[in-house]
Amino acid sequence: MIKKSTEELKQKLEKEKSSLEKELKNFANEDSKSRGDWGTRYPKFDGGNLESEADEVQEYEKLLSVEYNLETRLRDVNLALEKIKKGKYGKCEKCGKSIDIARLKACPEAKFCTKCNIIKS
Ligand SMILES: [Zn+2]
Prior knowledge:
Elements: H1 3-25, E1 28-30, E2 38-40, H2 50-86, H3 101-106, H4 114-120
Antiparallel strand pairs: 1-2
Helix pairs in contact: 1-2
The protein binds zinc ion.
């Protein structure tokens, strides 16, 4: 892979990492013991009546799924950054071939090449 594009993608990944972390911090706390593991804070609405409790539960469930998505993406971004450090970035985890640069530009945290990604899903 060309060094310049790796550098570009690395910057993109780092930007994504900080924006994902920022989003997560809005409603979740990172586990101090296991890094990269986030826990959603239970929302507390004013009032304390049954109606607001039901809203809280609903909101909490919504946040849990958002948290799950963000956490998964953040994990992939971190893995990609780790791979750049080790010089293993841009290789498909399944077939070992280089991932298309166009695909990496659209999705820098991609783990699989286009072909394997289709098979996987
Ligand atoms: Zn592949």
